[in-house]
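Dear colleague,

Thank you for sharing your sequence with our group. We've completed the structure prediction you requested, and as agreed, I am returning the results in plain text so they can be pasted directly into your records. Please verify that the sequence below matches your submission; if there's any discrepancy, let me know and we will rerun it promptly.
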Amino acid sequence: MDHSIVSEELALHEWVCERLAAGDPRPSADEAPLVRELLQLREQLVNNPEGKDATTLRDQWHRQSALLAQLRAGRDRTQVDPRSPYFAHLRLREGSQERDLCLGRATRIESGLRIVDWRNAPISRIFYRYQQGEEYSEQFAGTVREGVVAARRTVHIQNGVLDRIEAPEGIFMDGAEGWRQLAAQRAQLAGGEASALRAHALEEGSHRRLGTGPSGARQRSDKRLPEITGLIDPDQFELISRPSSGFVAIRGSAGSGKTTVALHRIAYLAYADPEVDSPRTLFLVFSPALRNYVAHVLPALGVEEVRIATFQEWATQQRQRHFPRLPRLLRDDASSEAQALLLHPGCAEALARHVAQHPGASTPEQALDDWGSVLSRPNLLRECCGDGPSAPSPEAIRRVADWNRRRQEELFAWMRGDEGSDAALCPEDEALLLRAWQLRVGPLRHRHKRPLHYRHIAVDEVQDFARVEVQVLLGCLDRHQSLTLAGDTQQQVATQGGFTSWSEFLQGLGIEGSELETLRVSYRSPREIVHFSRSVLGELAEDEAPEAPRSGPPVELFRFSDRGACVIFLCDVLRALARTEPLASVAILTPDEASSDLYHDGLARGELPGLHRVTEGDFSFAPGVEVAEIEQAKGLEFDYVVLVDVSPAHYPDEPRARRRLHVGASRAVHQLWLTCVGTPSPLVQVLEETRG
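Please find the predicted structure tokens below.
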């Protein structure tokens, strides 16, 4: 096709490639002054490690080390990747003059070539805050510049090939038959028309096929690295570019970009302060799968040294360092009553009161005694836990206290050398032990006994964290007090921590003055899926429905007489999908491990290509079919999702089941199917009502 926008972008890309191929004439920076300064700092620290200026010297050492690492990394790799040099094109008109700027992941400005790192504040503000045709007014180096955004486009360049352009005039794609234009879709409030939902009678629907997603949806072979930097909206960018000091709390529905904001905020802060891209920044998540996802996305944003872990991994490492005499073994056989009490906010409050009421030495031994004592004081625990809806009953507290006394005897016998003692800790013990250290001894410590202080901490899926876990993290922040919290109460699957509302949670942490920011646009799924996933929440849904920018195929429910028939049906449609869309990612999400095993084994017997049974969050993030429990997929997304065994037994009419079904449904990017054997769950009644 012959279109001026396509011609302009192809010409721009060709010219940029020529300039990049000519090489970078800029001289590389000299690292010698930094090395000399580091040697001087090291000498001062060695000669006087405990001097009054030691803390300041160590801070300087870490800051200059980060600068040196960044300098060497920049010298060792190409600053602008010619295979994908930029993802956005901006044309600015000031008076009679126009200039073209490209946004990428690194900066290169020379001889008319202007590729600017998206983290460069003035330029990125124009791109993310203004639309094509709007007037702008921004400050550049102390000078106010005013003009009009003449053109604002995002592009997809992969392996040096420009194959997609998105502009207000339309979406242009290069395919087997050349360039073609698709209609651009505008955002609107989530719909709810009956055509968005469809249910089939028993054993019907065999003619249906997956892969009927919206036209023009480009698929990637690497499902971990979506081209999202150019799609950040003004609200997201405002949160990303907040000053580095202070707390940022973000809530938003599934697919609204909470994780995107948290990841890009770290990349943005690291651009201004290289020390952010270091092990002194901590990104914590709830599940191993989300940890693996973040570990692959951050390096693509130019951030390579940040520590990424689940809270359990981080807390266990810290507990083993601070309490080395305790058993390393963790037991997972504690009662649900014990788990709930150990993570209840009242338990941490009881610990704080106990320490305040009982003066003692600032030693690990005393902190361990505090931890053991408070869990054996049922009266204090009852008083601190209160009588609210989430409070444990007096009988439950008494049973847990009795259990803990027996456990304490086993632990102390083991510490005295009794190897026959059946001593072990629970995962829920970790945060309370670390909090006991902070209250009695002081800040947590590095291996070398220095205070453990982080430059920035980001916590994703915070609604599944206990308050005491976040309290421990707050005690590990340095003077910047830089913290990002992101979550959604509608997706809470771990209820033991007692997260009931944002206001109560922030107030309990002592940061109630922080403003809670809400992301209201759900970008991941089409409005049919957004509407359905919200409907299953019932009264748990937020008052304001999220916006959904696009439409897609209906959500469909298929009923079968037995699981074998369901497996045969899925095997047929998934094999057909693999032929027509070889890059598609599909998740078969189940209610439990037994169901995962059954469906995986059945599909494996059908020799379905690209089949993978997910265990411990080891998603492949590649094309194919992943079979996993809903909890493992939390925080991730897939082109197509099939929720199996959506029955009353697995999804009764109760809050936890509603949230689980909501989490599973909201993983789908293009299309969502549900299956059941016999009668479907009452939570999907909205689908049943459309049948017939």
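Summary note from our side: The mean pLDDT is 85.

Kind regards,
the structure core
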